[in-house]
Amino acid sequence: MLEQQWVLSNHHDKERVKKLAEEINVPELIAGILFNRGIRTFEEAKNFFRAESAPLNDPFLMHNMDIAVDRVTRAINNRESIMIYGDYDVDGTTSTSMLYLFFKEIHRGFISYYIPDRVKEGYGLSPTGIKYAQEQGIDLLIAVDCGITAIDQVNLANKYGIDVIICDHHHPGDQLPAALAILNPKKESCPYPYKELCGVGVAFKLAQAITQTLKIDEDVLMQHLDLVAIGSAADIVPLTGENRTLVKNGLKLVSDANKVGIRQLVKNANVFGKPISTAQIVFSLAPRINAVGRLGDANRAVKLLVTKSESEAVEFASVLESENRNRRDLNEVMFLEACEIVDQEFDFVNDKVIVVYKKGWHQGVIGIVASKLVERYYRPAVVIAEADDKGKGSARSVENFDVFQALKSCEDLMVGYGGHKYAAGLTIDLNNIEEFRRRLNEYAAIHLPPNDLIPKIHIDAEISLDEINNRLMTLLNLFKPHGPANMRPIFISRSLQIVGYPQLMNERHIRMKVRQNGAVFDAVGFNLGHYYNKIGVGDNPLDLVYQIDENTWQGRTTIQLKIKDLKIQTNGNGYH
Asked: Residue of 204, 218, 248, 515 with fewest CB within 10 Å of its CB?
């Protein structure tokens, strides 16, 4: 396991933190965490802690929203045919499902959806999909979670007489498609105040604007916040501001599982009847939805999410479950093969970016493999599979390295690319892979300093164990939902004594009791079994980095520490 660098956040203004603590009646510890997360006034703290009732931004602040709503209104009034065209990932399928269900209630004309085949058509708007829309007599095509770089495809739609509205959140290129309206808060011309919406968030804003314009009952839209929450959590967007409000309200609906498809999904994930967290979406629900798009037809995910039939929900959810098992097996094989290539061929001294390619790899899971390579080696990773005599690649990155900009520096070598700071996709000629590898590492040599290749644990505060109590736990629970830019707070306590003997569980995990200033807590460290032999001998104190958690056993809930990392002190004030 890679050694981690501990980074303690202590750069806040003590006087302003004290003032904030007094204004909102919380300990300075909590106010300091809020301050470091950019929440520095009473109003900001109120909107953070009461996110479910925080006001949403005016959707018409988004550039082109008026044009988009006018066109949709005309389509509704004239009963025109509308197609929702989405990407095959969770953000895309939830965007598609949300708008499809919304339009089914307000539109008396023909409404359909389309998800491209990952292998046959690739990402985003495809000529095949546009041709299908033309054959179906579609008048208006609404692209969700894709389209911002679809220059030729939108031109083709225009040629067929199909109007296109794009709802996207990916970085625009130098040229924009000739769509009727482009809704994307990341457009330079867009004054929308919150830039971090994902695809389903942008689609929601379109539906919100339509709801206001046509004076539709708000509940018609708000009942679909469960889909917004699933898509937003799965797409790993910052859970701040408007995203936090949408997700916090949506999580309640996911937990209620009023949609039969979501109900069957959470049942299969063994979380039915419990409050659903963002972590459960990311690690349990999203992989199941994603699996069908990775290995085959993502339309099956949309069918599950929009069905009103209990029997269909059981059938579709069973398909997702089976495909997810297949995805896990395939992913494990490819990851081991990728690690073998890295261990044998990667130049750890001179290169910083991993680029691996192997004939026969399935392009549907290369993103997962890239993420696991980053986790294992803590270096940016690009995994490339072959498809239609081209290389289809997926890139993932480490903190502080913008992989989208890195790809942009090599754009002359690629057929196409797109994505975000930490995740991107690309298409490349197979003959260019070696030069691509060289150029990426040339870019990284300038923009990725050695210190950024050390994984970091960002610690919110240093505390003593006697500061941990039920009130602190209650306040920490108010930070939910957690996600990027609002991760679960992490603490450090120093010079802890171990009480009794540590336990090794399943050869992988450790459990122990720790004491400081008379306070004693259970502490558990998942996948930290390699520390067992070190802490099992002697009585040297520990410095512990952890999250404060709750553990319920036999109806009794207690506070426990979830260990993220630890260091054992030596007599010389060092560590071993």
From this structure: 218
Tokens of 260: 């039969």
- Residue 374 pLDDT greater than 60, yes or no: yes
Given a cut of 90, whether residue 296 has pLDDT beyond it is no
* Pair 183, 205: CB distance under 8 Å: yes
Element (H, E) at 436: helix 433-447
Please provide the CATH number assigned to the domain covering 346-452: 3.10.310.30
Residues 6+ positions from 246 with CB-CB distance below 8 Å: 56, 201, 204, 225, 228, 229, 232
Strands 542-553 and 556-568: antiparallel
Please write the tens of the pLDDT for every residue from 265-293: 999 999 999 899 999 999 999 999 999 99
**Nearest 5°: phi and psi at 349?**
-85, -45
Q: How far, CA to CA in Å, does 175 sit from each of 149, 152, 156, 182, 517?
A: 8, 11, 16, 12, 62
Average pLDDT over residues 468-492: 97
Q: Residue 543 pairs with which residues in a beta bridge?
A: 567
Whose tokens are 């963002």? That residue is: 278
Instruction: Measure the CA–CA gap between 144 and 512, rounded to whole angstroms.
Output: 49
Give alpha helix (H) positions in 62-198: 65-77, 90-106, 127-135, 151-159
| Bond prior to 172 in cis (omega within 30° of 0) | no
pLDDT tens profile 166-219: 999 999 988 999 999 999 999 999 999 999 999 999 999 999 999 999 999 999
DSSP state of 431: G
- Tokens 């109007």 belong to which residue? 163
Place of tokens 């259970």: 522
Sign of CA dihedral 18, 22, 27, 30: negative
Q: In the chain, what are the domain boundaries?
A: 5-9+457-568, 59-250, 346-452
Over its C-alpha atoms, the chain yields an Rg (Å, rounded) of: 25
Determine phi and psi for 484, rounding to 5 degrees: -50, 140
Which phi and psi angles does 177 have, rounded to 5°? -65, 155
How far is 330 from 295, CA to CA, in rounded Å? 10
249 to each of 45, 94, 225, 278, how far by Cα in Å? 17, 16, 7, 12
Say how far residue 285 (Cα) sits from the centre of its chain: 12
CA distance 356 to 433: 9
pTM equals: 0.93
CA distances from 168 to 280, 328, 339, 478 (A): 25, 29, 34, 31
By C-alpha distance, which of 293, 371, 374, 383 is closest to 337?
A: 383
Select 59-250's CATH number: 3.90.1150.10, 3.90.1640.30, 3.40.630.30, 3.40.50.2000: 3.90.1640.30
**Position 185: which residue type?**
P
What's the CATH class of domain 5-9+457-568?
mainly beta
- Cα–Cα distance for residue pair 327/231, rounded to 1 Å: 20
**What is the Cα–Cα distance from 297 to 18, expressed in whole angstroms?**
55
Task: Identify whether the C-beta of residue 103 lies closer than 8 Å to the C-beta of residue 111.
Answer: yes
